[in-house]
Amino acid sequence: MAQYTSASTALAVIRLRNPPVNALSLPVLQALEDGLKRADADPSVKAIMICGENGKFSAGADIQGFSLPKTRGISLGHFVSLIERCEKPVVAAIEGVALGGGLEVALGCHYRVAHVKARMGLPEVTIGLLPGGEGTQRLPRLIGVPAALDIITTGRHIPATEALKLGLVDEVVEENTIEAAIRLANKVIGQPLEPRRLSLRPVPKLPNMEAFLSEALVKLKKQARRYLAPELCFQAVRAATELPFADGVRKERELFNVLLTSGQAQALQYAFFAERAVQKWTTPHGSSWQNASPQPIHKAAVIGLGTMGRGIVTSLVKASIPVVALEQNLEYLNTGRKAVMLLLEREAMKMEQGAQTLDFHNPARLQFTVDFDALRDVDLVIEAVFENMPLKKEIFQKLSRICKPAAFLCTNTSALNIDEIASATSRPQQVVGTHFFSPAHIMRLLEIIYGHHTSPTAIATAVQLGKVLKKVGVVVGNCFGFAGNRMMFPYVEQAVFLLEEGSRPEAVDQVLEDFGFKIGPFRMSDLAGLDVAWRSRKGRGLAGDSVPPGTPARQRHGRRYSPLPDLLCENGRFGQKTGKGWYQYEKAGGRTAKPDPWLHNVLTQYRDTHHIKTRFIDQEEILERCLFSLINEGFDILAEGIASGPEHLDVIYIHGYGWPKHRGGPMFYASTVGLPRVLAKLQRYSEAHPDVPALRPSTFLKKLVAVGNPPLKEWMSYLSRPSNKL
Ligand SMILES: CCC/C=C/C(=O)SCCNC(=O)CCNC(=O)[C@H](O)C(C)(C)COP(=O)([O-])OP(=O)([O-])OC[C@H]1O[C@@H](n2cnc3c(N)ncnc32)[C@H](O)[C@@H]1OP(=O)([O-])[O-]
C-alpha cells in the first residue's frame, strides 16, 4: 500500500507501506499512482513528497513477486515516468534503504533528500536481473557513465555521503529527513521542472567513451564466468550512451526479459531467500531459533594462531569483540602475532576510517598470551589448533577447568566428532562446533555444528556470533565432515578416479571451472595443501604404515580407493606450498598452476602398473560424476537430519565452497536438472563402478523420484521422520 496524507494544505505526502522493507508490490505501485493522481487533481497541492514507512524508503520490487504470473508485464518504469512527468515538484525523502526499484522511484522524483545513514544502490545484478525500472537510463544521465556502470554492475550499496558526492542526492541530513524534504519541497514550489526530469537530460560525455566502455566490458567478462547479468547490465548502460531515452528504455526492457527467463535469475533469487531461511534454524530435537536466546559475547579467546586462528582473530577484532589470542609457546605466539597484525593492517587499510576504527594496538581489545589463565573471564573460546583429536580433548579438558561456567567452548574443526571433543569437558552443553572457512576473515560461511548435548542457547549464541562477524551461519548436525566436507569427499574422490581412468587434472578442473566454480578440485587441493587430507587418511588407517599388510593398493574396506594423492605426498608434492602438487608452480608458494609432465608420466605408469585401460572421458561424464556424487551425498545428509533442508546445503556450498551462485547451489541445481535424470545417471555410473558407494543412488533421492519429482520446497515433507521444515 501507499498512504496519502497532507503535511500542509500545499504538500501531499505519499508514504510507501509494505513491511518489513516496503517492497514495491503491485498494490503498493497502484496506490502510489492513485496518490499521484489525487495530488495532481487537487489545486491546493503545490508539491508532493514520497517517503517510506518505518524509516525505510524501499528495498525495491518484491522479489517473491517475480515468480507470480500476475505481475509479469507490469512495468515499474511506467510508475517512475508518472512521477517524473508530474507537473508539481516531487521530493523523495530517503531513510534506511532505497534499493533497486526503490532507488528507481527516487530517480523519477525531481529532488532527493537522504538521511546520513541511508544506503542506496541498484542490487538487481545480484539477483540475476538489471534495473528494469528505467534505472539504467536515468542513473548515467544523473551521475555519469563510470559511476553508474560501477553501481549497476556491482550492485553495491552506497552510503548517503558517497551518494551526495556523486550527485545522486541533493541533500544529506543528520536529523529529520522528512522535515528536511518538506522544507526543500516548499522551497522549490514554482521552480521549472524540466531540468529536474532526468529522462530529458543528455548522458554526460566522456572524451574517451568508447575506450572506457571496451575496457570495462573486458573486465566484466573476465569476472562474470557465464554469469549473464553483469554483461547485460553493461549493455543497457551502453544503450543509454548511444540511444535516445525512449529507445534506451526499450532496450533495457528487452534485456530485462532475457534475464528474467534465463534461469539464472531464479537461481539467484532462490539463493537470496535461502540465505535468509537458514537463519531460522531448527534441530531434530525440537530446539529452534524461536525458543533459544543467544548470550552476549563481551570478550572472546582464540586458541592456536595458525592460518585459521589468525583469520578468526581478525574477524573478531573487525567485529569489535575484545580477543585474547593464545599460543602454546612464545615462538609460535610471536609468529602468530606478526601474521595477525599484518592481516589487521591490511583490513584497516580497506576500511573507510582506517586503523583507528579497528583499534587493534590496544591490549584491552587484542591481547596475545601463552597463559591459559588469561581465559578466565572470556565469554566464548574458539579453539583452532590443528585437526588432532587427543590434542583438542586435552585443550577442552583444560578449558572446562579454567573458563567460567557460563563460557561457551567452540571448536574450529572441519570434520572431527563434536561429541568426542565435548566428552573431555564437564559442560558438554556449552560445546559447539564452529567450522570457519579459509581465509576465515574473508569467507562468509560459518558451519555451526551441534553435538548430542549442545544446548539451544549455545547454538543460538554461535548463530548470533556468525551474524556479528558478518557471516552466514548454517546450523548442522554432527557427523564426519559435517555437511559441507561430507559432500566434498565424493566430489574430490570422483575427480581422482577420473584421473585413474584416463583424464588429467587440467581437463577435470576446466570442466568444473566452465561450470562456474572459481577453481576446480585439483587447483583447490593444491591451494589447500595435499598434506592435510593425507594426515587425516593416515589417522584413519587408509594410508601410510597403519594400512594392514596385504591390503590391495586400490581398495580399502571393500571399496575402491585411489592411492594417487598419497603417492604425490610421498614425493613431497603438497601443492602450492611446495611448488608442486597436481600442477607445477613457479616456486614454492607460487600461484600460477602449469600442467606438469612429471605428473602425466606418473599417471601413465600408474595405469600400466594397475592394468587400468585408459579411455577418453568426455566433459559430460566429468561434470556428472563429480557433481552428482556430491548431490547424492546431500540427499543422504537430508535424510539423516544432519541438515534441515536443501537450502542449508545450497547456502553452505555458495558461501563456503565457491559454488557458482547463479546456479543456486547443488540441491537447487539438481532440481533444475530434474531428479529423474540425476537418478538415472547415478544408476548408470554406479553399475559401471559397483565398488564406489558414493555413486549408489540415495534412498531419499529414489523416493523423491518415485513420488513424482516434487519441487524442492516440498522435498522435506517426504521424509518419514518428523521433518525439520523451516
Ligand atoms: C521490476 C523492475 C526492476 C526492479 C527490480 C528490483 O527492485 S529487484 C529488488 C532489488 N532489491 C534488492 O535486491 C534488495 C534486497 N534486500 C536486501 O538487500 C536486504 O533485505 C535489505 C538491505 C533491504 C535489508 O537487510 P536486513 O539484513 O535488514 O534484512 P533481511 O535481508 O533479513 O530482510 C528482511 C525481510 O525482508 C525481505 N525482503 C528484503 N528485500 C525484499 C524484496 N526486495 N522483496 C521481497 N522481500 C524482501 C527478506 O526476505 C526478509 O524477509 P523475512 O526473512 O523476514 O521473511
TrEMBL record:
Localization, UniProt: Peroxisome
Record's keyword annotation contains tRNA processing: no
Catalytic activity: (3S)-hydroxyhexadecanedioyl-CoA + NAD(+) = 3-oxohexadecanedioyl-CoA + NADH + H(+); (3S)-hydroxydecanoyl-CoA + NAD(+) = 3-oxodecanoyl-CoA + NADH + H(+); a (3S)-3-hydroxyacyl-CoA + NAD(+) = a 3-oxoacyl-CoA + NADH + H(+); (3E,5Z)-octadienoyl-CoA = (2E,5Z)-octadienoyl-CoA
CDD domains: crotonase-like
One BP term from GO: fatty acid beta-oxidation
Top-rank taxon: Eukaryota
Gene Ontology CC: peroxisome
Signal peptide range in chain numbering: none
Keywords recorded for this protein, A-Z: Fatty acid metabolism, Isomerase, Lipid metabolism, Lyase, Multifunctional enzyme, NAD, Oxidoreductase, Peroxisome
Involved pathway(s): Lipid metabolism; fatty acid beta-oxidation
Span of domain 3-hydroxyacyl-CoA dehydrogenase C-terminal: 481-585, 622-710
Enzyme nomenclature, EC number: 1.1.1.35, 4.2.1.17, 5.3.3.8
A GO molecular-function descriptor: enoyl-CoA hydratase activity
InterPro entries per record: 3-OHacyl-CoA_DH_CS, 3-OHacyl-CoA_DH_NAD-bd, 3HC_DH_C, 6-PGluconate_DH-like_C_sf, ClpP/crotonase-like_dom_sf, Enoyl-CoA_hyd/isom_CS, Enoyl-CoA_hydra/iso, NAD(P)-bd_dom_sf
Domain 3-hydroxyacyl-CoA dehydrogenase NAD binding: 299-478
Family from the record: In the N-terminal section; belongs to the enoyl-CoA hydratase/isomerase family.
Subunit composition and interactions: Monomer.
Protein name: Peroxisomal bifunctional enzyme
